Amino acid sequence: MSDYxxxxxxxxxxxxxxxxxxxxxxxIAIFNENGTFCAVDNTCxxxxxxxxxxxxxxxxxxxxxxxxxxxxxxxxxxxxPRLRIRTYPVVVExxxxxxxxxxxxxxxx
Length: 109
Prior knowledge:
Blueprint: E1 5-9, E2 18-23, E3 26-33, E4 36-41, E5 55-57, E6 60-62, E7 69-71, E8 87-88, E9 90-93, E10 96-99
């Protein structure tokens, strides 16, 4: 069974925006797009910007530093196909956002 961690309330993240959190030793960004929430790595691999300070539109998170755009389902960068970010499963229960984030010490597939 998957281990989800309660991170925040749905009301804590404004529509069309993201917010950064630390979960199991990892910095992640959670975005709110029309009441649908998604989670990705917080750090943009292009210039180390905080994606959580960015915006989301049509499933694409945009880094506020240089505008690099990432698909929040696949993690693929639409600006530079050599770049990619990790995505994380999200569930919402009783207005709480829960994310499945492996501990930093866990092996990644």
